[in-house]
Amino acid sequence: MKRCIVALVLVFSLIATACSSTTGNSSTSSSSPDTAPPPTAGVSPSTSTIPGTPDETSVGAGGGEAGLALLGAWVGPRDGFGDEARRQAILDHEEAIGRKLGLVNEFFRFDLEWSMDRLRWHLDRGTGLMISWNGAPATSILDGSSDDLIRQRAVWTRELDEPLLLRFFWEPDAAKGERWGYHDNPALYEEVWRYVRAIFDEEGVTNAKWVWTPTTWHFGTGFAPMFYPGDDVVDVIGADGYLWAPCRGSIETAEEVFGPFLAWAKDRPQPILVAEWGAALDNGDGSKQQFFDAVLDLFGPMDRLLGLVVFDAIDPNNERCDMRIDSDATSLEAYRRLANDPRFGATAALIAELG
After folding, report:
1. This prediction's pTM
2. Splitting the chain (355 residues) into consecutive groups of 10 residues, what average pLDDT does each group show?
3. What DSSP character marks residue 44?
4. Which of 15, 269, 280, 321 has the smallest count of CB within 10 Å of its CB?
């Protein structure tokens, strides 16, 4: 049953200045788990609380106003990896920031079944949903051997019966693209993207908006745009960008991380989604809090922004970078400032307005 749709208007103008390109390769690399991340043994989540927690009506009540964006998150479960632990992680995240999320990200490996009950739980709560569905080697898709699997995912998407974001095969410019044979042939990625989307179209999937997100780093090198499938098959554009220092790399600003992507995006017609972002815990120099504040300053005024989706977990790729928003009390306080800014008060209805 469809929910009532609250009209929102996306103003397609970008207020952003082309910023300096990154000079190192530490800004982005996939933190995305397409299987359960490794246990975070010996690392306890912060129990810090910030006084004066606002109720969820303080942000989001103005969902009918133009210019609002979605506040989103992928939240790594703090205790276990089952459905209940993942639901509880979302509730704990919302309690920590003092408001309800507008968008939740869920990761699934290409051949891993989707947790339909959990996905419906998000939608039943009135939360927007982004499904990050990983890709696979081209031969396993283009030879037709995965057609039944792809059709099943299309049917599941259609049966969710709510407007949602489908982020297929994110970060093809990074490690998985190299591992699966795409790095020397980005055109092959476009062929795969179009092949999969065509099957979804054949299955009558009209509720999914297709989201394309490489890493921000490879916009600086000019490599990421080579993977762009085309305006006719991409509904939302974005990029994944992180402040990795100090767990690896050097200190970088939000402008250095996202600037090259924004310079490219200004010539595109689609709304913009930062589908993954976060900052590693610093060594006491305040860089994590500064990064949170800078992201608010950078993206807050942007009319074309669909939303920001923070990665709230410890990096699963053996880097042990602490990207949790509550890694320390001052980081949580800084993130709460962003989360409770009225700019990020959009509801799931915004996804339906993408057309």
Report:
1. 0.83
2. 35 34 38 42 30 32 61 93 93 98 98 97 98 97 98 98 98 95 96 98 98 96 96 97 87 91 94 97 88 96 95 82 94 97 96 90
3. P
4. 269
